[in-house]
Structure formats: structure tokens, C-alpha cells
Amino acid sequence: MGLVESGKIPKPLTKLLNMSRRYSMWVYQWGLACCAIEMGAAFASPRYDVMRLGVIPLPASPRQADFLVVSGTVTDKMAPAVRRLWEQMPDPKYVISMGSCANCGGPYWDSYSVTKGVDQIIPVDVYVPGCPPRPEALLEGIVLLQERIMNEDMAERWKGDPIVVE
Amino acid sequence: MVTTESEQMAYIAAQAADARVNVEVETDEGMTLNLGPQHPATHGTLRIVAKLDGEKVVAAEPIMGYMHRGYEKLTEVRTYPQVTTLVNRIDWLGSFANEVPFILAAEQLMEVEAPPRAQWIRTVLFELSRIANISLFLGDMAVQVGATTPVFYAFRDREFVLNQIERVTGGRFHPNFDRIGGLKDDLPKGWIEETGTVIGKMRDFCDEMEELVLGNEIFQARTRGIGVIPPEVALSYGLSGANLRGSGVDWDIRRDANVGLVYDEVDWKVWTHPDGDSFSRFWVRLQETREACNILEQLLGGIPAGPIMAKVPRIIKVPAGEAYVATENPLGEMGFYLVSQGDLTPFRVKIRSASFSNMSITPWLLKGVFVPDIISILASLYFILGDIDR
User: How far is CA A107 from CA A4, A19, B290, B351, B386, in A?
Assistant: First the structure.
């Protein structure tokens, strides 16, 4: 990755690399609540079938995953575990926040035990609204994420200090 | 209250350190196996800490609360029509069934009764959500013992049921359809015939599951004689639903303590199994899905004509009083203890959800089993995390 680190990566090469990354993604599914079932329908049901988008569900560990789908209510008790698993994922990593609860707290906006938005603990790339979103909506979110990866400048993404986890 | 990002991070790091310490404290002797909070077999976010001696579990403890969303407190600041939106999300697989006991309790206090047509449609949707819930269990249980294919079948056939629910209520998952005094809308045209076709499909699904899973030798080896709950233990732990009937106790609220739904009008049977093991719990649920198809078929043939909404005031104020209504939800007995002081909002709501009681037996049940059996026992107990933690 010397080219990438130097920041002088040729445009056609960027495009090729991005295209390869876009269509070969492992998704780590963080099924928490109601949305987990809709995510299960999108990932495991023959009707929606996420694999046709070039996304493979159910990796053995977060260390293999390219992006994370946080689906459902993140509670304050769960938040450290969400953060920890996100830290275990290798860069470059992306996060899709699925459903109102993960986006902003949703119906539990005034609850004492719910984290109002997973973006308080990890950076989120795509928000999928709905309570719960239909599987089609999650697929749309994945397509948006793929577009985002396609238009990414890799040198831009890699510059700066690496994230150190203590 | 934490405000800046660094404070937030420090708070999270402290929480994580706390969680690590908890595990270390428990590892003073033998090996401690930590399952969850994120584990596919826990249907979400249950954490089980098991102390092992070799392959054997010496002690196991479920740690709950990772999905605690504070329903009981939130209901105190929501008006009665808004509460249904919340309680929908307790057992997210059979959402409509959660609304019914709450609405019935509120109706009891208001001394309103839904018109017969509304009661029938309620029962129809109740049974449809039972099928939607249990069909996923039938596939999921097979996944937990190592067969991947049945869950694809379950997701495939569950879609038909969800479509029918969606056509009436507008929501695949969370219908929010039940109102105090009746229902929001009537059935759409042609719905009854289409549901008849779907029932046929679900019957085929049950047959498929019976051949594919129940008759499978590996499945039987993994579940027969594993996780046996004797009837008196089941009763003393407050188990309900198919877990109780799987232990041979003949108790079903639909038949024995029915409130507000029309189960008396149809001819049906309560299934029990004497063994009390994981296999019998699966078997009972399979038969219940079939029985739900039978109930639905009879109900669809006899929905009476008439209004779907009783006369209720536009702004709902429930008179002061207390009421407890329980129904036989897909997971077991779900009850709402409702205390009202005559306001727009409930004064106090106590939710008796089935999974919490069903889960409380795990320390007793997991003692002495082998590690792989933890998964199949947990799967056969069939809990939903929203239903445990609320």
C-alpha cells in the first residue's frame, strides 16, 4: 500500500480498487432488537437475498468484517460492547445504523436506559430510517454505502493518525 | 450527565473495564465460558456466564438487561392510544398479540366491550401473529442444532403471513392496529380468501418441518432427553406457554381463562407432551402452529357482520381502578396489570411477560448439561429478548 500512503494513487487504480472493495464485503450483523429480524429477512431469506449485492453475511468474527449493521435499540448497558466490537474490526470499516432506535433513540427517546443514537459511540456512514425498516430499505442503505465506497478517495481516507485503542 | 466526547469515551471505557472485571471475578476456579451478549444463539443480547468442569456446566447464570428499554416507566408518560405503539415492540415477532391484553385491560376499566366483529378479527390477527412468531422458531431451532436450511424455509413462508398482516394493518411487524373499543379498520376486500390460501401454505410448511427436522435422526439425538423439565418444576418456576405444555401440564389461557377473544366459538385442542425435554417443546410448538391454522380456518368462515368500533370518547380517559388481563401469547402468558387514576396516561403498568419467567429456569436447567446442549436448550426454551428485559 505504498502508493496509497504516499497519497499519489492514480485515478484508474483508485476506481479499480474501490470497485473491488465495493462488491466484496463481509457484513458483521449486530442484531439487537426488532430490526434484527428484518435484517435476518434481508440476509437469510430467499426473497431479499443480500448476496446478490456482493455482500456476504455471517462472518466468523468482527475481525473479518468490512462493515457493521447496528440494527435495533442500543442500551447504555450494551453500548460498551458495541464500541468494543467496532474497535475489533479492521480498517477500512463502515457502519450502517438501521432503524429509528439506532439512529436517534426512536420510540424510546425519553427512556432512561437507551442510548439515543449509536452515532454517540461509533461513527455512522448510512442511516436507514424506519421502525423497523423493511428489508428493501436496508438493501437500499447497502447500495448507498457501496456508492460511497465507489466515490471514495483512498489516499484521503488513509491519511492522518491511525486510531489507537488502549 | 456526560457531555463532551472525551467524557463519554471515559465513561464507556469504565463500563467495559467493569464488564471485564465481572468475568475475572467468576474465574477463580474451573473455566468460565461467557456466551454473549452478542451471540446468535441468544436471539439478541442475552449473556450467559457458565462455569465449566471439563465439558460439563457446573453453574450457569443468565445476565439480563442488555435490552432493557424501560417500558413500564415510559407507559406512565404516554397516553393510552400511544401505549400500544410501545407495547407492540415487546415481543417483536408476534406484535399484534402484545397489544391485545393491554387494550383488554383498558376496556375492562372503561367498561367498554368491542363489537363481535372486532373481537373476531382480533382473534384472527392474534393467531396470525402466533404463526408468524412460531414459524421462525421452527426454523431457528434447527439452526441452533446445526441445520441451516430450515431457517430459509421459515423466512420464506413467514413472508406470506406477514403480507396478510400488512394488508390489514399496514405494518409488517408492528401493526399498532388495536384500539380501545375495537379496531382501526375493517378487513380489506378479498382478504379472507387470500388468508385461506396462506393457511394452506403454512400447513405445508408444518409438514415440511416435520419431515425435515422432527424426523431427523441428528435432531432427535440432540434434543431427546436433553433439558428435561418435570411438571412440578415447570410450575414452580412460573413457566407458561409451550414450555409448560411441553412438560405435560395441560394449561392454556385461551381455553381455561379466556378474556375478550372468541376461542370459545371454535373447536380446537390444547397439545401437550409428557416428556418435558427440548424435543417435546419443539413438538408442541409445531402442533400449535397447525392448531392455529385450524382455528384460523374456522374463524375466517364465521366472522360476523357489524361495526368494528364501539362508542368511545374521542379523548380517552380511563376511570380510576385496577385491572389485570392475561392472554396466551405465542411465548406464553402475557399479562398487563394496569392502574389508572382517571388521567390521560396510565398511573402504573406492570407487564408480566412470558420470556422473563421462562428464562428464570435456566440456572436450574443448565446445571450438569454439556456445553453444546446449552445452545439447544436455550433455543428450545424460545425467548425473545425484548420480552425478557422489556
Answer: 44, 38, 35, 18, 14
pTM: 0.84
Amino acid occupying residue B63: I
Q: Does residue B86 lie in a domain region?
A: yes
Q: The CATH number of the domain where B76 resides is what?
A: 1.10.645.10
Q: Which residue of B lies nearest to A85 if distances are taken between CA atoms?
A: B38
Name the residue facing B37 among A46, A78, A111 (closest C-beta): A78
Q: Which of B37, B31, B21, B20 lies closest to B57, judged by CA?
A: B31
Residue A131 near chain B (CB below 8 Å) = yes
Mean pLDDT of B219-231: 87
Q: Do A83 and B16 touch (CB under 8 A)?
A: yes
Per CB-CB distance under 8 Å, the chain B contacts of A132 are 173-174
Q: Is residue B35 one of the residues assigned to a domain?
A: no
Read off the pLDDT of residues B156-199 as tens digits, 9 standing for 90 and up.
888 899 888 998 888 888 888 888 888 888 888 888 888 989 99
For residue A118, count CB atoms less than 10 angstroms from its CB and return exposed for 0-12, middle for 13-18, buried for 19 or more. Answer: buried
Nearest to A80 among B15, B73, B386 (CB): B15
Count of domains forming chain B: 1
B16 touches chain A (CB under 8 A): yes
Q: What is the mean pLDDT of chain B?
A: 85
* pLDDT higher than threshold 80 for residue A60: no
Phi-psi category of residue B324: left, alpha or beta, with phi > 0 → left and psi -120 to 50 → alpha: beta
Q: What confidence tier does B26 reach under pLDDT thresholds 50, 70, 90? A: low
The rounded distance, in Å, linking the Cα atoms of A8 and B309 is 70
- Contact state of A80 with B16 under an 8 Å Cβ cutoff: yes
Q: What is the pLDDT of residues A23-35, one digit of tens each?
A: 888 888 777 888 8
Element (H, E) at B300: helix B278-301
Say yes or no: A114 contacts chain B, CB-CB below 8 A: yes
| Contact assignment for B45 to A37 by CB distance below 8 Å | no
pLDDT of residue B17: 64
In this complex, which of B40, B155, B173 lies closest to A45 when CB atoms are compared? Answer: B155
Q: Which residues contact B298 (CB under 8 A, 6 or more apart)?
A: B265, B266, B267, B268
Measured between CB atoms, does B15 come within 8 Å of chain A?
A: yes
What is the span of the domain harbouring residue B360?
71-389
Interface contact flag, A83 B45, Cβ < 8 Å: no
Q: What's the average model confidence in pLDDT over B72-82?
A: 88
Domain for residue B7, yes or no? no
Average pLDDT score over residue span B18-37:
63
Integer Cα distance of B46 and B62 in angstroms: 7
Q: Is residue B6 part of a domain?
A: no
Q: Minimal Cα–Cα distance from B43 to chain A, Å?
A: 8
* CB atoms A111 and B45 under 8 Å: no
Its ipTM equals 0.78
In degrees, to the nearest 5, what angle opens at C-alpha B155 toward C-alphas B150 and B161? 125
Identify the pLDDT of residue B25: 45
The reply to whether B151 touches chain A by the CB within 8 Å rule is yes
Nearest Cα residue to B92 out of A69, A131, A129, A113:
A131
